[in-house]
Amino acid sequence: MTSLFPLLGDSFPNIHNMHSAPSFVGCLQDIEIDQIMVIPENVSSNSSLNVKEGCIRKDWCEHHPCHNKGRCINLWLSYQCDCYRPYAGPTCAAEYIPGRFGHEESVGYAAFPIEGSDHKNETISMFVRTRKPSGLLLSLKKSTILLFQVWLEGGKLVMSSPSSRKVFGKQTVNDGNFYLISLKMEPNKTELFQSSQNLGYISTPILTIQSGDIIYIGGLPDVQETNVSGGYFKGCIQDLRLSNQPLEFFPITPSLDSVIGKPTFINIAPGCAGDNLCKSNPCWNGGVCYSVWDDFTCTCPPNTAGKACEKVEWCELSPCPHEARCQLVHQGYECLANAVFSGRSSAIFYRSNGKIRRDLTHITFSFRTRDSNVMLLYAEKEPEFISISIQNTKLLLQLQSGNSFYTLSLSSARAVNDGKWHQVTFKMTEPLSQSSRWCIDLDEAKDSTTSAVATGNLNFLRDETDIYLADKAFDHLDGLRGCMSTVDIGGIHLSYFDPADGYTKKPQEEQFLKVSANTVVTGCMELDACLSSPCMHGGKCEDDYAYYHCTCAEGWTGSHCEINIDECASNPCAHGNCSDRTASYVCLCESGYMGARCEEDIDDCLGHLCANGATCLDGINSYSCLCAGNFTGRYCRRIRLPSTVCGNQNRNLTCYNYGNCTELQGHLECLCLPGFTGQR
Ligand SMILES: [Ca+2]
Ligand SMILES: [Ca+2]
Questions:
Q1: Which ligand has the minimum distance to the alpha carbon of residue 622?
Q2: For 386-426, what is each residue's pLDDT tens digit?
Q3: What spacing in Å lies between the alpha carbon of 162 and ligand 1's midpoint?
Q4: Where is the EGF-like domain (predicted)?
């Protein structure tokens, strides 16, 4: 024999038809058979198949034939794709078809019976996508005996077997994304993985999956048994595998020599379409719904919030009159204000809108008054009634309600008519009971008393019962002079604003409506304004609830008595300059005048200097002398008429009016002209 190849040719004429073992692929060099070198030249063409000279290797992966990021493995004659899950097929272009469980509120599950010999050290793995926080994922059963199972609880994975503790996942997986979950069964334990993260293990006896065992996915045939472990799964499961064997819901790969018998599928849909949750119009308040997988989102209008736009920021719509304070209440808002009542005929009354369903077990409000006997709130539906009043300066609740024969009477210990604000709550001590004791809570429990007897709640106010505020309407007493806050009965308010006031209609279903048409004066001051002593200069302050008033001391005026009255304004000084003082004035008199108003002319003749019997004539700050006889001059000290004098230095005589003074024998005598007489 010189060559093996002819022999080969003879022995394997149909080598390409033999499938039992694959042919060698690669290069051979320096082949020596029986010390004879075998080289391509001495191998005849009919004794060889697919043998080529040289050792050229083609890069089959050069053009990236694998899809979906599959890894390409270059072989001599072709390539192989190593696919990422859940892709499959020679080029990873195919994808395992997910099974949709619980589509549109259906319930379903899959059951894969095991066949063939015992399976040890197996891994069960799958992709899971859901938004539900609970649901059974996998259950392995031997006949009716549960071996172990995996389910979702609070959005987290849980694994357990009947004889083991539970293993809990750390993160929630119900966010609508796919998660790869694996169970690795080892001889005496089973480990749970989320992607590559080991979540823990349960100890199991040596676990072999045997022919006849069943892997349940998404639920069990028995509803109650399923509900114990989170109920039926809602979501998608994709690329389920028992080790490397795909367990397909909708096969895309040819079934191999299977370890799985004929599976059962109940209500499993192909693909992973989400439910259309927008179908039920879940968005409130005009929100626009957009479907996302097994969920929805709402595009909310301004002033609304929440997943379904269910929360309305009502107060941001400024729905209240400017003097009111907006407050959010259940399903809506309320406009709160303090009202001023001025006694008789200011009473207002309310009625339920007929839609109040809640139990009314408390009543809360604030008030301020100086009245010592006055009605604050009254309602009656015979024989039931409620009366809240001030009697002998104390706050008093009288209540007869339900089946009780007693009239409950509950009074504050302290006087409440000091004109200051007081907050009061009357409430049932056991609001869930049909009948209970009531307690009063005044000024943040500074005054707290509980009734001795029990009675029912205020539910009679839900029917057609008039609720009077600030007056009883049909008695002879004056109504309240003072203020009341908005009254809160069981969380529903008695608004001072009419629904017809043109503001946004209140959306809440349960309401008390103001029935009386008279408008309420709002704007009661928060505090007694007189506490800050706003009246100056001894003015007296009076608090009128809505405003305050200063009664000024004498000499002062202005709203706060800040102006000194000008008492000189009426020019009170007759002959003088006025100088203003407090509640008075001072006159500085001109010369010659006296008196408070300078009205008095001073008698300047007192101590006058008029001589010779002259008469003093009073003037202004002066006087004149009216001379007698023949005197003249300012003070009448000079003789007024022509005269002659006779005699000597020691003894002389003056004769007036041209009388002739004569001396006869030492006797001096005046000889008068005709018409004059007298000695001189
Ligand atoms: Ca003055
Ligand atoms: Ca005078």
A1: 2
A2: 999 999 999 999 999 988 788 999 999 999 998 888 999 99
A3: 102
A4: 57-93, 274-310, 526-562, 564-599, 601-637
Residue 445: its pLDDT value, please?
A: 76
Number of residues in the chain? 680
Alpha carbon distance 495, 77 (integer Å): 89
- Torsion angle in degrees (nearest 10) through CA of 522, 525, 526, 531: -170
Coil, strand or helix at 131: coil
Residues 6+ apart with CB under 8 A from 21: none
Please tell me the distance between residue 550's alpha carbon and the centre of ligand 1 in angstroms.
18
Ligand nearest to the CA of 592: 2
579 CA to centre of ligand 1 in angstroms:
9
Task: Evaluate the omega torsion of the peptide bond into residue 86 and state whether it is cis, within 30 degrees of 0.
Answer: yes
pLDDT tens-digit map of 364-393: 999 999 999 999 999 999 889 999 999 999
Q: What does the pLDDT look like over 193-236, one tens digit per residue?
A: 999 899 999 887 766 788 889 999 999 999 999 999 999 999 99
- Which ligand is located closest to the Cα atom of residue 605? 2
Q: Is the pLDDT of residue 13 over 60?
A: no
How much distance in Å is there from the Cα of 568 to the middle of ligand 2? 25
Positive/negative CA dihedral, 284, 290, 292, 294: positive
Task: Say yes or no to pLDDT of 293 above 70.
Answer: yes
* DSSP string covering 384-450: EEEEEEEETTEEEEEEE-TT--S-EEEEEEEE--SSS-EEEEEEESSTTSSSEEEEEEETTTTEEEE
Q: What is the pLDDT of residue 499?
A: 66
Measured in Å, residue 530 CA sits from the centre of ligand 1 at 25
Measured from the alpha carbon of residue 564, the closest ligand is 1
In this structure, the number of other CB atoms found within 10 A of the CB of residue 216 comes to 22
Tokens read off for 308: 């379904």
CB atoms closer than 10 angstroms to residue 20: 4
* Separation between Cα atoms, residue 442 and residue 436, nearest integer Å: 19
**Whole-angstrom Cα distance, residue 67 to residue 83?**
8
d(CA 81, CA 301): 51
Average pLDDT over residues 525-536: 82
Which residue type occupies 265?
F
Identify the H or E element spanning 178: strand 178-185
Task: Quote the pLDDT of residue 521.
Answer: 84
Q: Phi and psi (nearest 5°) for 307?
A: -55, -40
| Centre of ligand 1 from the C-alpha of residue 531, in Å | 27
Ligand nearest to the CA of 618: 2
228 three-state secondary structure: helix
pTM listed for this prediction: 0.53
Q: Minimal CA–CA distance to 210: which of 351, 130, 114, 282?
A: 114
Span 236-251, mean pLDDT? 92
pLDDT at position 255 is 66
Please provide the distance, in angstroms rounded to a whole number, between the alpha carbons at the two ends of the chain: 217
Ligand nearest to the backbone CA of 616: 2
Ligand lying nearest the CA atom of residue 600: 2
- pLDDT the model gives residue 500: 60
Tokens of 73: 């493995």
Residue 419: name the closest of 369, 484, 347, 455 by CA: 369
Residues 232 and 130: beta-carbon distance below 8 Å: no
CA distance 374 to 389: 6
> Separation of 591 CA from ligand 2 center, angstroms?
9
pLDDT (average), residues 446-474: 88
Q: Which residues contact 564 (CB under 8 A, 6 or more apart)?
A: 537, 555, 556, 580, 582
